[in-house]
Amino acid sequence: MIENVGSYHDSLSFGNKFARLLWRIGCLIFFNPFPGPLFRYWRNFFLRLWGAKIGRKCAIASTVRIWAPWNLELGDYVSLGPNVEVYDVSKIVLGSHVTISQDAYLCTASHDVSLLLKPLIHEPIYIADFSWVCARAIVLPGVNLGHGAVVAAGAVVTQDVKPWTIVGGNPACFIKKREIKESLL
Q1: Among 9, 97, 111, 122, which one carries the catalytic annotation?
Q2: What CATH number does residue 113 fall under?
Q3: Which of 7, 64, 72, 121 has the smallest CB count inside 10 Å?
């Protein structure tokens, strides 16, 4: 029998929780009801009001769920597809020309299961330029995706991904090098 395990200590402040409550209410009124590309600039403006750093010409679907916009940084020409979940307890930084496809999950937090009370732990996620996280893929805390990396649909990424590689599976493993057959110039 386990005795005297103490009490759970939540590391997130009351101010953080209150800000997230206001953010969720604001989303219901000013973010989610404005679907489609015509309201792209409005959604980007609203995210910037809440502290997100949003580059030029980003496309964020109205059904994207962002936990804390003040922990989100997007480069230029980033696309967050329908129903993307951005659980950014820690910073999430996406470079330019990054695509996060529908139903993908970017998760910066977990729990320390080596302790009985399983306190929240979190690490940032960095996704470099020209990377693509495909539909229903999951990127877990502390992961860095190198330039041009591709995470295949449904993959679960638990480790860093080298530049210009394609990974897939659960846990995600190397599939092949990504070769670009055309130039942007």
Answers
A1: 111
A2: 2.160.10.10
A3: 7
Q: Which two tokens stand for residue 163?
A: 């530049």
Q: What residues contact 149, with CB distance under 8 A and at least 6 apart?
A: 127, 128, 131, 132, 161, 162, 163, 164, 165, 166, 167, 178
Residue 102 has a CB neighbour count (10 Å cut-off) of 16
Task: Give the type of residue at 85.
Answer: E
Whether residue 97 lies in the annotated active site = no
Residue 8 has pLDDT above 60, yes or no: no
Tally the domains of the chain: 1
Q: How many CA atoms lie within 13 A of 50 on its CB side?
A: 25
Q: Quickly state the pLDDT bin for 183 (edges 50, 70, 90).
A: confident
